[in-house]
Specification:
Strand order of the largest sheet: 3-2-4-1-5-6-7
CATH class of the largest domain: Alpha Beta
CATH architecture of the largest domain: 3-Layer(aba) Sandwich
Distance between the termini: 56 Å
Bound molecules: guanosine-5'-diphosphate
Number of helices: 14
Strand content: 5-15%
CATH topology of the largest domain: Rossmann fold
Number of strands: 7
Radius of gyration: 28 Å
Length: 366
């Protein structure tokens, strides 16, 4: 439109019309694809089954993602990989921080590679719930393994509850097996609930212990010892050899007081040194003996079947929990009830019943 002051009655003044300003935001930005498009599940499966590590890593990233679109692709990939899975030795490794897990995994892993196997190292790290970052399974901790070809190292999935993190690791096992990894290590810190989760997804559970503190047996929870199929005393080197042997003897006599294991296998106690690579072959011979034993008596298959059932229920529990807690109406009501419980106006049980009743009613109306 012509500017009003350009009218003939205003003389001596002309106002030029303005020039359109370029936008301050690049208009083409939205046209650019933001992220790589999701690969079709069949392409990922094809790559995984061929042993392509890039496809495997991408699929694992999708498994770990919280986004529903990623989850959908991940579930389809897992489903298609299932027929190719199962063909591995799944070994859980636990021990307190400093017990020498990464040093030992480096050595155990090299031993496996020498025998011609392939190895995936996964981890379940409960501390990652708090820190949102994880230490276990970190490549930098396994110097020898991290530069090998037939090795896939993946740190712990970090987001979500322990159950959720553990489920993702279990799904990753399926993918690794489909990619031809015939040895799977699942590492965890021996300090809490996570051993139970690891125990429920492995065939053999190895507990790494240290000697020399004098109170070895008090230091560990009975439950963890009960789960162990093998206990190994690390750092049996230098002037620590006698103490390590003494600790081994103490563990052996403690184990004798335990009820017989479900598998019929008697857990063995061995000494070794991860740092100096001493006794590694002996530890592996024990694990070989275990597999021979449980494959002979049928316990191997039975344990895997039971684990599959356990994970079915775990997944149902997780989905129910998520559906409940992620509902915005439930969240709002929970907040209100929580306040009243905190100020002693309402009992915990009545508050819980009110919220669950509300949830069930809402579900029934749908
Ligand atoms: P993690 O926290 O359980 O993974 O333990 P690391 O593998 O990081 O080991 C903790 C420390 O113990 C490191 O300083 C290692 O060098 C040391 N270490 C590990 N294995 C041995 C061993 O067999 N003998 C000795 N003397 N030291 C070891």
């Amino acid at each position: 439109m012509e500017h009003p002051e350009n009218d003939s009655k205003y003389t001596g003044l002309t106002v030029n019309s303005g020039v359109a300003q370029p936008p301050s935001v690049n208009p083409y930005l939205n046209l650019r694809p933001r992220r790589k498009p999701l690969p079709p599940p069949s392409e990922l499966v094809e790559g995984i089954v061929k042993g392509d590590i890039t496809a495997l890593a991408r699929a694992v990233t999708l498994v770990e993602s919280m986004q529903p679109a990623h989850q959908a692709v991940a579930q389809e990939v897992i489903e298609k990989c299932l027929p190719h899975s199962g063909n591995s030795r799944r070994i859980g490794i636990t021990g307190v921080p400093g017990a020498g897990k990464s040093t030992s995994i480096d050595e155990f892993g090299m031993h496996i590679l020498k025998r011609g196997g392939k190895l995936a190292v996964l981890a379940i790290d409960p501390s990652s719930e708090r820190t949102k970052g994880s230490i276990l399974g970190d490549k930098t901790r396994m110097e020898k393994l991290s530069v090998q070809n037939d090795v896939f190292i993946r740190p712990s999935p970090s987001a979500g509850s322990l159950g959720g993190v553990a489920r993702k690791t279990r799904e990753t096992i399926v993918l690794c097996e489909a990619a031809g990894f015939d040895n799977i290590f699942v590492e965890t810190v021996g300090v809490g609930q996570s051993e139970t989760a690891v125990h429920s997804m492995v065939d053999f559970f190895l507990l790494i212990q240290l000697a020399g503190t004098g109170d070895e047996l008090q230091g560990i929870k009975r439950g963890i010892m009960e789960m162990a199929d093998g206990i190994v005393i690390n750092k049996c080197d230098g002037d620590n050899v006698d103490r390590a042997k003494l600790a081994a003897a103490q563990f052996r006599s403690a184990l004798m007081l335990f009820p017989p294991t479900e598998s019929g296998w008697t857990p063995e106690v061995l000494c070794y040194s991860g740092y100096y690579g001493l006794g590694i072959a002996e530890v592996w011979d024990m694990i070989d003996r275990y597999f021979e034993f449980v494959q002979g008596n049928g316990y191997f298959d039975e344990r895997r079947r039971k684990q599959a059932r356990y994970w079915m229920y775990e997944t149902i529990n997780e989905q129910l929990r998520n559906n409940f807690y992620q509902n915005p109406d439930v969240q709002e009501l929970l907040l209100a009830k929580e306040q009243r419980v905190l100020s002693n106006e309402l009992s915990s049980f009545i508050a819980a019943r009110d919220v669950t009743d509300f949830y069930f009613k809402m579900k029934n109306e749908k």
